[in-house]
Design brief:
Strand order of the largest sheet: 1-2
Number of helices: 8
Radius of gyration: 22 Å
Helix content: 55-70%
CATH topology: Arc Repressor Mutant, subunit A
Distance between the termini: 60 Å
Largest sheet: 2 strands, antiparallel
Shape: flat
Structural class: mainly alpha
Number of domains: 1
Number of strands: 2
Mean pLDDT: 77
Length: 148
């Protein structure tokens, strides 16, 4: 965690079950819960905050936005580590679902389908402008005819 995120969390200086009183304490508890892998809703509940408040802070305050992103990444790393630990003993399906939601670029579904002997790649991630322009210059890939 970067120094400003750690400072923001230390400003709160809360025990796990303390009710946060100050803005700094509420922010710290929110970021701590997010870094632990909680959803935004759950982190808000633990910090006694309304979701619209934290989204407003994230929109208007660069430092908070950076701390949020870092806490979210740390929480996602934690979930990923836990998924590997539990994959053999608990519901793999639920863990995969959580990982797909938090890191679709890594765990998202990728599909390839064949239509009219042309190969298409379907992804849940949009093409960048450069990738799209590159496809305009490419010839479609013709697949060999099936033998019947």
């Amino acid at each position: 965690m970067n120094q400003s995120a750690q400072q923001e969390m230390n400003e709160g200086n809360l025990e796990k079950n303390d009710f946060p009183q100050t803005k700094a304490q509420k922010r710290a508890q929110f970021l701590e819960a997010l870094a632990f892998g909680a959803s935004v809703t759950r982190a808000c509940e633990e910090a006694h905050l309304v979701r619209s408040t934290v989204y407003r802070w994230r929109e208007k305050e660069e430092r908070f936005r950076e701390n949020w992103q870092e806490a979210f990444e740390k929480g996602t790393d934690r979930l990923e580590d836990r998924a590997y630990e539990l994959a053999e003993t608990i519901s793999e399906r639920m863990l995969v679902f959580l990982l797909k939601a938090r890191r679709p670029e890594v765990y998202g579904d990728r599909h390839v389908m064949e239509t009219s002997n042309i190969l298409y790649h379907i992804s849940d991630q949009p093409l960048t402008e450069e990738e799209f322009e590159a496809t305009l210059d490419e010839e479609p890939l013709e697949l060999p005819q099936k033998r019947g």
